[in-house]
Amino acid sequence: GAGVSQSPRYKVAKRGQDVALRCDPISGHVSLFWYQQALGQGPEFLTYFQNEAQLDKSGLPSDRFFAERPEGSVSTLKIQRTQQEDSAVYLCASSLEQIYNEQFFGPGTRLTVL
Amino acid sequence: QKEVEQDPGPLSVPEGAIVSLNCTYSNSAFQYFMWYRQYSRKGPELLMYTYSSGNKEDGRFTAQVDKSSKYISLFIRDSQPSDSATYLCAMMNSGNTPLVFGKGTRLSVIA
């Protein structure tokens, strides 16, 4: 079957604009994670869902960041009033049940804030 | 000091060489240790994972974990140009905790 997909693959926003990034996990995967990867850095955890429940949002850098997964499948990461420091690749990963070590990553959305 | 330290390289080796990549960490609670490979403009791909200390081998790849030294390694034998990528170590506690990644080491294998 298909892997994790993310859209859009690239997004350019003007500072102050709101953006929405979408993640389609592997079908049947219960757990979904969002990570932020700055240039030349490893991914950093943002938030985690188990089905529709957001169990950990400790990595969200500010209250401008919001994530949801209303039906336990597709997830959206929303960034309000984007700033230049939000420029990064946003990665989504999913895993089957609670097997956290086997996270399958999507290709990411590269966000550039001008 | 970050929880996971990894030399970013770049590391350049000739085809056929043995490559050694490593990470150190400070959190003694880490129980799961992973190596991911990331090609340019792609998402990370899980290569290997190890639970607690010990060695694990898969084809040309060997992962080692030394919890007493808080040190993990990935060895690549008979390296190929297709191995050219960024290699990320990642770790987590047992239970409901997120992955903590190193910065990644950029590897180039020259034909």
How is this structure best described in words?
The complex is a heterodimer of chains A (114) and B (111). Chain A has 114 residues and is mostly beta strands. Helices cover 0% and strands 48% of the residues of chain A. Chain A starts with a strand and ends with a strand. Chain B starts with a strand and ends with a strand. The model of chain B has no long low-confidence stretch (mean pLDDT 93). Chain B is mostly beta strands. Chain B has strands spanning 4-6, 11-14, 19-25, 32-38, 45-51, 54-58, 61-66, 71-76, 85-92, 100-101, 105-110. In chain B, 0% of the residues lie in helices and 55% in strands. The chains are: A mainly beta (114), B mainly beta (111). The interface between A and B is medium-sized, with 26 and 26 residues.
Instruction: Catalogue the unreliable spans of chain B.
Output: none
Q: DSSP strand (E) fraction of chain B?
A: over 45%
From the spread of the alpha carbons, the general shape of chain B counts as: globular
**Number of DSSP helical runs of chain A:** 0
Tally of DSSP β-strands of chain B: 11
Largest interface: A-B, 26 and 26 residues
The rough form of chain A would be described as: globular
List keywords for this structure.
heterodimer, A: 114 residues, mainly beta, 7-stranded mixed sheet, 4-stranded antiparallel sheet, 11 strands, B: 111 residues, 6-stranded mixed sheet, 5-stranded antiparallel sheet, globular
